[in-house]
Amino acid sequence: MKNNTLVVLQREYFTRVKKKSFVIMTLLMPILMVGLMFAPALLMDIGKEHKTFAVIDETAYYAGVLENSAKSTFVFMSDTASARDSVVKGSYVAMLVIEKRNDTSNVQNMKLFYSESEPSLETVGEITDAIKTQLQSLLMHKIEGVDKQVFDKINKASVEVTSQDLVTGMQSYVEVKTIFGYVCGILIYFFIFIFGSQIMSGVLEEKTSRIVEVIVSSVKPMQLMLGKVLGLAFVGFTQLVIWVVFGFLLVTITSFIAGTAAAPDVSAMAGSMQMGGQNIDMSAMTEMAGKVGEMIASINLPYLILMFFFYFLGGYFLYASLFAAIGAAVETQEETSQFMLPITIPLLLALIISTNIIMEPNGQIAFWFSMIPFTSPIAMMVRLPFGVPMWEVGISLALLVAGFIFTTWLASRIYRVGILMYGKKVNYKELWKWIKY
Question: For a surface tag, which of 148, 196, 314, 353 has the fewest beta carbons within 10 Å of its beta carbon?
């Protein structure tokens, strides 16, 4: 019997690539990912309303010094009864009573009275921060005798830490590396589950419909399993390539537009121009475009994309064969749950531990999780943007290759028996017998 792995691969690949759902999802996924990143922030801003509070200041300290913000306005009133009635009628969101306090105390007690809807934690936090800032100013200026300008200068002091490579002199952007690594880890996690589940469902469907009995008459079970695994791998690889090219073009076009907009002589235009009644700072746009270029250069994008493909394919091959073995071993979708749990735990654990890896990318936990084949595709991709020695990357990839060779061999032992096994409840003891056949 000739090797028909390539035939199965071609069938699995072209059958799925030609589907409308594949084309639609390939084009829409980048847009959906961007939407998921920015939609929560936009929705939060849309949902927020400007709030006006009636304030009864028993201390007589805060009138005229409590500053309004973009989200809150404070209207000071002297009559408590009038303020209460205004809140009940809906003129104000709530009534804030700043209680009289001892000048030697560093605690300011407040009460927030509402009528219809209780103020949210965010609203309470905003009011607390506003009062706290003014309380500190009062304690320093009026009680301790510190000059207000000195206090404001101290209060606005901040610290900015930047890291820079001693050899290349390039600045490091930790936030960009964190986001890139975490996004890569999540993508690998979802790709493995999406395509692994498709393999499992496809094998299960062929088994329950008895089509597999016809297929194995001309194709060996091992060849059939490998063809399915490789076919889905190329489908995923195709999507990834399209997304990378699409993302690269999007970044290039955006940079070109920003560069074109910043092309006019900034000095001749006094650093800005008038458009639509607003001042547009061209020098700021130029600086922003340069900043984006520095951020991209700081993460060595070509190297990380190459590593992403390696770890994606390695992780996929490691788990896909196990998903195929599960599909061959069971007869219903409900039976897959007992065998899915041991497979999902390492991947889920790697995703959860990613936060610890980001906090300490060179720690012991990060090192060992990036070496274990079942967790390295996610753990190593989270670490790589922060810089990983090449010997660690080499060992990790070698172990990953050895891991998927072992799981493919193990899965093939189960697949060749289970694909033609009907009417028998399968458990782990039974699977062990199939492996030893």
Answer: 148
